[in-house]
Amino acid sequence: xxxxxxxxxxxxxxxxxxxxxxxxxxxxxxxxxxxxxxxxxxxxxxxxxxxxxxxxxxxxxxxxxxxxxxxxxxxxxxxxxxxxxxxxxxxxxxxxxxxxxxxxxxxxxxxxxxxxxxxxxxxxxxxxxxxxxxxxxxxxxxxxxxxxxxxxxxxxxxxxxxxxxxxxxxxxxxxxxxxxxxxxxxxxxxxxxxxxxxxxxxxxxxxxxxxxxxxxxxxxxxxxxxxxxxxxxxxxxxxxxxxxxxxxxxxxxxxxxxxxxxxxxxxxxxxxxxxxxxxxxxxxxxxxxxxxxxxxxxxxxxxxxxxxxxxxxxxxxxxxxxxxxxxxxxxxxxxxxxxxxxxxxxxxxxxxxxxxxxxxxxxxxxxxxxxxxxxxxxxxxxxxxxxxxxxxxxxxxxxxxxxxxxxxxxxxxxxxxxxxxxxxxxxxxxxxxxxxxxxxxxxxxxxxxxxxxxxxxxxxxxxxxxxxxxxxxxxxxxxxxxxxxxxxxxxxxxxxxxxxxxxxxxxxxxxxxxxxxxxxxxxxxxxxxxxxxxxxxxxxxxxxxxxxxxxxxxxxxxxxxxxxxxxxxxxxxxxxxxxxxxxxxxxxxxxxxxxxxxxxxxxxxxxxxxxxxxxxxxxxxxxxxxxxxxxxxxxxxxxxxxxxxxxxxxxxxxxxxxxxxxxxxxxxxxxxxxxxxxxxxxxxxxxxxxxxxxxxxxxxxxxxxxxxxxxxxxxxxxxxxxxx
Length: 724
Fold this sequence. Notes:
Elements: E1 2-8, H1 11-28, E2 33-39, H2 42-49, H3 56-63, E3 70-73, H4 81-93, H5 108-118, H6 126-129, E4 134-138, H7 140-148, E5 163-165, H8 173-176, E6 178-181, E7 186-192, E8 195-202, E9 207-213, H9 215-232, E10 235-238, H10 248-260, H11 262-267, H12 269-274, H13 282-290, H14 296-309, E11 316-318, E12 323-324, H15 334-343, E13 347-349, E14 355-361, H16 365-381, E15 392-396, E16 411-413, E17 418-423, E18 429-435, E19 440-446, H17 448-465, E20 469-472, H18 478-491, E21 501-504, H19 506-518, E22 523-527, H20 529-544, E23 550-555, E24 561-564, H21 572-581, H22 589-606, H23 609-627, H24 641-657, H25 662-677, H26 679-687, H27 704-711, H28 715-723
Parallel strand pairs: 1-2, 1-3, 3-24, 5-14, 10-14, 15-22, 20-21, 20-22
Antiparallel strand pairs: 4-15, 4-23, 6-9, 7-8, 7-17, 9-19, 11-12, 13-14, 16-19, 17-18, 23-24
């Protein structure tokens, strides 16, 4: 029996799996395919790190190197320190004997514990599984549905004051970057004033980048943007990615927190030192540490006074609860938050709940330039028209940890001022940097094989689509200049006759893409890994309403396939609503589409007629799901995610019953009949649990029995599915 691995992950898609997977397995087993779970959730990774569970992530890291690998990967938590601590506390409460996370390790034993837990932080999953480059695009049926049923985009006001502020290459990662290509397999050492930071095994042809964020420049930048926001009468908001960029961005977040509340941090410096307050962890952690202290009320009042002064206004995560963008570093994730700024007409919400034009503060110009042009384009040309806009497809360079800026072990907060050197095995200094104490220095890497495959995939997709492809590469950026040499070299190995393949810097590429999108035309953006993250949330959220509806296919270098269920995140607010009122508004369309591609891969690989019929029927079911608007409602008391899974099963069974594979038609004809005849009863049973609180035994680590009961409440549906 062929096998598809389905990742057990976190939050909303994890809950959806309890309902969806039994249906999937019932259908796929009829064609000789078993879908099995592999636990790579945050809780699973924590338990594995502590030796209390199998290390499923490492096992999958071996699977992706096999030619028959077939994995469906759902969104997982890229954990911040705060999320990790909450997860540990929950597991301890469930009886697991694991230690607390030592935030400030005092001895070697605590350092060892911290090191084990640190493997669970940030983008721990993606670098392991992505042994191939990314092909992300909207399925034609999904794009057409969005045009016919447009979601709402708020208009930009005339003379909008919204804008993006970035450091413009003055002291940031972009401006300080140097890049070299290793000429052989060798050990390369990073050192600060001659003291080793890290030694790596570099490969021949591997691009090595070194760069740093000047903390003094960052502080000056924050100060200026706060002053400018006040002068311009706009709301101030900070956009980082402290989940994936697990070393650099929490630090940058902390400096932003201190800059905005400068007087409060200065006034209470001694108290905060006494309590070991770490601004990198945000207001929620600060409040925990001051709880019960003699100055608790005074400190809270001082923070509130700054907020109420509105000089300038600060963006809020939840206005009703008084939760600011500085609540926790993981609350605002740039590739999700910036599309919302554009969607809402350049506005975010202030403490009163009012939508206010904002300055989006994005320190590093590497990708700040993209967001700046997106907002500037809308200020100049108005909001996009969902009914007519074209689409952006993306070919992303990410195989073998390419450009994993935030998840590698080569980012350092410098403990002293001086010279950072990158030295080859023979003693040659490849790069050197003059830095100050506290500066954030990092190396990123990009191997040769991924670049060649990236070029191959670009040529393949450009020929299939017949539209322009643009490499977003800036010859004035050190890293991009090295990549450009390789791309132009490898393009010569392929037949590009008749293809429109261009090269542009980030700003020009954004303008080119947006001009075409406004004309209803499609474009392929060929980007590095970090920009891929930003583009494949921004454009789908504008085009489709969510990035979770994107096809996300990773053709693995070894010949297998990894199918990601969109870029939509794990939707913690969806879980909050489910626990409160039994309603899960997560849309599993991304899972449906990924499953179809996964089955298609198997059918092609094995020339299996039955599998091809199963896949064709699922394609029809997905079209029916869209055409009949069976996506989950946002409101309790109306059909939710559980109901959407029922309709998928109904449409899939009907398509099989009417299909040309006699064996499958005979098997699923009675299933289709029963699902149709008992539709009212099933929907009634699903709706009967709406509006009621749910107990699933845990947030990060639910009780499987309780979660399954909550997500499969229809006895009628369960009996039909279980009998297939």
